[in-house]
Write a structure and sequence with these properties.
Layout: H1 2-22, H2 25-38, H3 63-77, H4 80-89, H5 98-121, H6 128-144, H7 157-169, H8 182-195
Helix pairs in contact: 1-2, 1-3, 2-3, 3-6, 4-5, 5-6, 5-7, 5-8, 6-7
């Protein structure tokens, strides 16, 4: 299926990093984490006896791991009907279903605005590039997947509140993500903007 092709390709991108760090076990790690990210599950198998729940904190500065995992989360989280629109209509946004338009616009907003917030309010101990990467990663993963590349307990209360809100919103209908869904959150906002 197309979904399995997506995470197979992405697993191949994760492979060099995980094989370098874990040897042959890295093949399983790459496959597992690509499926977990696409399915918005957020499960990781990187724990050790000394650190049982590290998630992806060891890769906070690794651009490849961060970008691949973010792309998989977004791919799984926007829904199969939206991907059908993208496949059939390519970049002709006007031909997309209304649901797909709302999902894509809301997804962009729910990635950019929280990332800017996290960058401005937290993560100040990181170098600028790693800070931007961590802010983007937390913005993407918090809504649906649950991975993390930073220590969540060290984030401000305001950032934790934003993260709770993002978790409540979740992903899109017909996707691998949970939550209330983007449509349920964005529709009242759209109706309010029409009435005023």
């Amino acid at each position: 299926s197309a979904a399995s092709d997506v995470y197979k390709r992405q697993a191949m991108l994760l492979l060099p990093v995980f094989v370098s760090d874990y040897g042959l076990k890295g093949i399983w790690m790459a496959a597992f984490h690509s499926v977990s990210a696409f399915c918005n599950a957020g499960f990781d198998i990187l724990g050790t006896a000394d650190n049982a729940f590290p998630s992806l904190t060891g890769y906070s500065g690794n651009i490849l791991i961060n970008v691949v995992i973010m792309l998989l989360i977004i791919t799984g989280g926007i829904g199969f009907l939206t991907w059908d629109d993208i496949y059939r209509n390519k970049m002709n946004f006007k031909r997309y279903r209304m649901q797909s338009k709302i999902i894509l616009m809301t997804t962009v907003c729910l990635i950019i605005f929280p990332a800017v917030f996290f960058f401005a309010c937290d993560l100040k101990n990181l170098p600028a590039g790693e800070r931007l990467l961590a802010a983007m990663f937390q913005s993407v993963t918090t809504r649906t997947a649950g991975f993390n590349t930073i220590d969540i307990s060290e984030m401000s209360e305001a950032s934790k509140a934003v993260m709770i809100l993002l978790m409540l919103i979740g992903g899109s209908p017909g996707s691998t993500a949970g939550g209330l869904s983007l449509i349920h959150i964005s529709e009242p906002t759209r109706l309010l903007s029409i009435s005023y």
